Amino acid sequence: MPDLHLHDDGSLRHLLSLSGLGRDRIGGLLDRAAALRAIARSGELPPLLAGRTVFNLFFEPSTRTRASFELAARRLGALVVNFDIAHSSTRKGESLEDTLATLEAMQADAFVVRHKENDTPLRLAAHVRQAAILNAGDGNRAHPTQGLLDLLTIRDRKGRIDGLKVTICGDIRHSRVARSAVHGLAAFGVRDVRLCGPSRLLPDAAEFPDCALDEDFDAAIEDADVVIMLRMQKERMEGIAELDEAEYFARWGLSAARLARARPDAMVMHPGPMNRGVEIADEVADGPQSAILEQVANGVFVRMAALVELLQR
Ligand code: NCD
Asked: What is the CA(297)–ligand 1 centre distance, in A?
């Protein structure tokens, strides 16, 4: 299959995954996001997306990602249509491909797609004629703009990405956030990535040959520069017995005492939505080492960068 990410001239055609995008292209998106952020903070953003139409197609619940894409597009002057999936013709049996072709005939320039099935954005990218597809999260596969905002937030606080020790803890098995973080960190040559969680929520080791897998959070967090906490994604856990929340917090929750095992200047991240008291303590989520709201703020700018890169011609 041809690389659906790129146009023939090498420019970005779709944003489906960070895997294979490479350090230069990812770094370029981060630089563009930081530049847009600087403009936004000192004055008014130029209408770089004026005349463009962006469709939000969210087939799964979402608060921050959908709002973030919408704000990113609107603040740069695009028209945004939030497609109401619950009342759409896909519920009458129309295929996703036909829905897309219909909307494309109305001059859609981009589709932001979230779907519970792996590879739905890839499938749509293979089908679409002109419009760009931006993956806003597919199954447990990829969430590239989340990966970008995580990288930007790390670069802001640490001044670099390579050479850091990164611990990701929680439901790795079902997490597209973890996968996109691993892809992005690998592009920057980060070699010390530890994936931690209860064994039944850890991925197969073969999928992450360059990461260390560990059930013991106290060991996995030792000396970490960056600690990324993940939610238990119960909606993606078929056939897995529920874990007791208090027991989970005792072993895999991020308390202040546990965070003290990481480097003193370690930063704490979480993609949201958070289950306070289950995977993260209030004092950590709201504490000085937390970069959680910086992640949210950066999300808007990386989505602006991605939309501009895909739509400005
Ligand atoms: C995540 C997602 O939906 O993949 N949230 C997000 O986009 N910020 C993580 C989650 O649902 O736990």
From this structure: 15
